[in-house]
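Hello Y.,

Per our agreement to keep a running log of every chain we model this quarter, I'm adding this entry. I've kept the format consistent with earlier entries: sequence first, then predicted structure.
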Amino acid sequence: MRERFQSACGGRGPALLLAVVFALGLGLRLDCAIRAPQEPVDDARAYSRIAHSLYEGEGFTQGTGPDTRHLQSASNYTPGLPLLTAGIYELRRAPDEETARIVLALLSSLAIPLAFFLGKRLGGPSAGLLAAVPTAIYPVLLEYSGMLMTEPVGTALLAATILAFLWATDKAPPPQPPPDAKRRRWRPDSQRPGAAWCLAGLLLGAMAMLRPEYAILIVVLPGIALLRLRHGEGTQWRRLAPAALMAACACLVILPWTIRNFVVFDRFVPLSTGGGQVLYQGSYVPAGPDPERMGPVFLDRHPWIRRELAPQPGPIYRGQAVALLAERLHPGEDTDTALRGMALDAYADTATEEPLRLTGFLAGKVWLAWTSPARGVMRAPLWRALQLALLLAAAVGLVVGLLRRSFEAIVLGALFLAVTLVQATFIASPRRTLMLLPEISALAGLGLTWAIARARRGSLPP
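Predicted structure for the entry above:
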């Protein structure tokens, strides 16, 4: 086992260094999970309430007491983290949030070796080690490990999905199926392993259950697989089957929750409601690209909403405010559907009347989502420098990989493009790009090793 691990890492030295980095990252995560030094953010509190309600048999709600009436519907949150946390509570036979945080920290620590193997595929063991270090010590992930948040475990799950997809597409389809193809094509060592496509699809479905915006990858990754296999030999169906299998497995994970939502809401809701809210908030040009300005600007333009919500306990959330406007403008209509229509109208009107303003607005959202610190700790000069250096090195690595026609770089480029489109369309959030840290670090590892190697040779061609 040790020899196989060392071989997979590229030698004894890289394996030892990876073990040290992994131990460091795991220790930091467990420390934060146990101590919980930071005050939980609003979403962490919501996940905690939903998980507790599930454990207590109250259903997927944020509670039924008077103190929860002002909160937005639990259906606005994706079910992955609350269901996982409630399952941990069931095994623990108590709603022990510390135990849940420890389990999530253990799962999230897998992002460290996964980042290493992504980097190794792109640029060798050195690039892998350079990818593992920031994934292990990134302060925002550590702070979120002290709360019930999707980002830490999401980094590991997304990296695992990408690696499983790359593994599945490593080899071209066989020229002709052998006589016992129906039996052999599912073996992991076959040229087109069905197990790998199933694994990639199941992981992708789990990722969508955790964060709904990544459901877009159910289209993107199978589409890339089709392009990858389009020139393979065999029938068209044999080339289509891997992508179809992956997409089917991803949908299979989501299907039970979609059926549940159809029964509850009497309409098609694949994962969660609330998409109309974040789409409308993302289309609110008067507030500019910064989502923190949306609430104050919106309430200043609609002071009646502030007066109406003032008696309730707690702060006024953006989602509550825009939902109240939709109820007034579209009485009797589903709020989320109304907000989706309002958002599309807002985008269309701005594109027609002020196209330059809309262009600047969208560009500002993308810039903010990729470069803004996700937490206050990232404003410290050291961590801010790390974030910007990672982005710059990753950009270099992506260009180098694309010029080399690296399939890994193509996949990561498509992933970044899909996330960027989501950020430009919906409300911009650095938390969405935070879960790309292993992929960003892997490309940064490639960019740094390429630059060092070329600097030593005195030239910098790709």
